[in-house]
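Hmm, what's this shape?
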Amino acid sequence: MLAWAPLVLGVIACCLTYVEARPALVTRPTSSKPAAFVDAIRVSQNQPQGLSDAAVASLIVQQSRNAYYATGHPCACPDDLMRNGRRCGGSSAYIRPGGAQPLCSVADVSPEMINRYRARLTR
């Protein structure tokens, strides 16, 4: 029986296939990706030029939040989490007067912002 061991290992080794890691398509909302953002990704993956207003607004909100997070501060919006794990709530930049004013919801995006975003994409 021990004579079979190299043959069995050789067969197993020859039949292993390379599995490429690909980024998974986002198909459902998660706590870090709200439903509107997931819809924007789904639409942009299928139809790069045909984004709806809601999809563009969602992308604008995500970019605004990412720009705030890039400054090293965790509390752009009330629903974000502080470093200690608690919700930001009233201490978020969105609520505090003055300073940064990140966009936290699709309702914060004006039609003019959507038009400017689309114009920037067509350049």
User: Anything to note?
Assistant: The helical segments are 4-15, 35-46, 53-69, 111-122.
